[in-house]
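With this grant's support, we have settled on a layout for protein records. An illustrative entry appears below exactly as we store it:
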Amino acid sequence: MNTILRENEVVTMGLLSLLLFIIAMIPTAIADSINPGVFPVNSKPFGHTYGEWSARWWQWAAQIPSNINPVTDKTGINCAQNQSGPVWFLAGSSGAPVFRNCVIPAGKAILFAPLNSECSTAEDSTLKTEDQLRSCAVNQDTGGDPHVIVDGVTFQSMQTYKVQSPLFSFTFPKDNIFGAPPGPTQSVSDGWYIMLQPLSLGKHTIHHYGVVLGNPTLGTQSFASDATYNLVVK
């Protein structure tokens, strides 16, 4: 009889623990379902934080020569430049709206930034420390207004996707999109990033855009990004 009671107690405690775990997970589940199909901003897709992935995005974009760089691409012809690994990067624009056609492999997560900025020691030799780089990057996009529409669905709560990178390094090519001196540099980035879980096979549309109004007090300039992708996943 005592054995049966002990077994019942074990089962009851197990069920109680499971219930408490489920209750504890409810707020996270709700937060993550604001924009279905998006990796939560506090998650670590493929073992890296959003901030670390933002650094990888810049390492990808900044190291491609301007004549074949996806940021300056107006049609999507350079969409596949330097793509590797489980995540496919999409670029924004250098101001005016662009419409790009792009074919991507099935099973790839997709990372893009409706608005982002970075500051590097190569672009500004007065920036010497990580704190200076970080302050510069944050100031560049202060007050930014990002927007994302995927397959006709407008994403909500975009301000929650603002992240900062750790300090990272890359090498500017001779012909780079910033006109910076070629060579190695250190940088910090700040901005709004979305990482989509792999899309289903077939056609999809991603429109990401935003604007930052410059602040004379901070010495920052206004800039905008507006890119529409007609994707084919296959």
Observations:
- Residues 1-33 form one domain.
- The chain has two domains: 1-33, 38-233.
- Residues 2-32 form the longest helix (31 residues).
